[in-house]
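Hi L.,

As promised, Protease HtpX:
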Amino acid sequence: MSARAGIIWSTLLIMAAILSLVFIFFTLLPGQIPAAVWQYFTPAEVERARRYQQIMGLVAILAFLAKTAFLVWLVYSTRSGAWSERVLRLTGGRYYPALLMYFCLIWLLLKAIGLPFSFYGSFIVQHQWGLATQSLASWWSDYLKGSLLDLLLSGASVLLLFWATGRWPRTWWVAAGFFLSAWLFISTFLWPLIIAPIFNSFQPVTAGPIKTMVTRLANRAGLKIDQILIMDASRRTTTANAYFTGLGATKRIVLYDTLVDNYPSDEVEAVIAHEIAHWQRGHIIRGSLWGILANFFLTGLLYAVLRVTFTYEITRPGPYPPQILIVILLFLQLVSFLGQPIQNAISRSYETEADQVALELTGNPGAMIRLQVDLARKNLADVAPPAFIEWLTYSHPATLKRIRAAEAYPRGQ
Ligand SMILES: [Zn+2]
């Protein structure tokens, strides 16, 4: 590895290590709770939610560190080259079967490392804290379905990517950027039709109070919205949520049944208004445009880093040798972790905008405040996390900020 490559990789690793350490520090010592919180929450509620978030935060960061450590070890040891030669021997020197076998091996090992963290975080802890309604069998069924889907999609992407490195040795990153961007749109369009139904069932709302609410809010927003679905979230969790998804003809608002069944109607209205606001402001399409930019930046940077790191291996004719895969995986692991603050800042700006538009649509800040309080209580949210934790990991503004924005309405406009 050249000196330049050494500097690039050390920088990425040191930055990820620093962010992880600061994250662990603030997770263990979240600090003072602002006095404004006591108007809405009891000390016991805040304490309990903080403990839960501490555990979940530690599980997430330890899973990240374990996988990263494994990839770093592979990249810097001679093991990966030896494995790559072994699969080439096993497949009689045929490149694509060898690549696929190598990919499956690494994928399985990463899965095995992640499994204890997934199981502890999304099954054990959820049951301990009374948030889960799911049986062990059902958890495994979700896990296996999700893993199979991941194996198929990432396996196909790896084959395509390595094929492109042989086909266009100097410009494969442009093709990869195009492919990822096209896939972003295709998957956003198809996700609600193909992927979501694998895990949940969805009931369209065709009549009743929710339908009336949607029609009234949609008229006010100047939209025609006919796709409102209720999802059977209660088969897994007691937490409540809603989301807006899809593209073009598949655009839809999805409400958890845990929300519709357990929350007062003016709070459900505030949620629907928030999702309609995402729709009206085109947040999915705006987010996808950022996604395209990120894709080309990512693939271009990957190409540059690989060129500097492997002058010899990747300037030979033909597709990259299979062991380059672990370097690509380590790169993606580090860059997506380091890119989180940017992604989350964009997401939080959309969420802030959606809250503001929702207040204009309902004209009911009181219901919005009660909604935020109820959601935080039932979902065990840290209502006022340390600024660093919010900056790094929060896709939505923290509860206290959302309450403050509603309190300021309409002065806040
Ligand atoms: Zn939102």
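The CA atoms of residues 112 and 208 lie 47 Å apart.

Thanks again for sending the construct details.

K.
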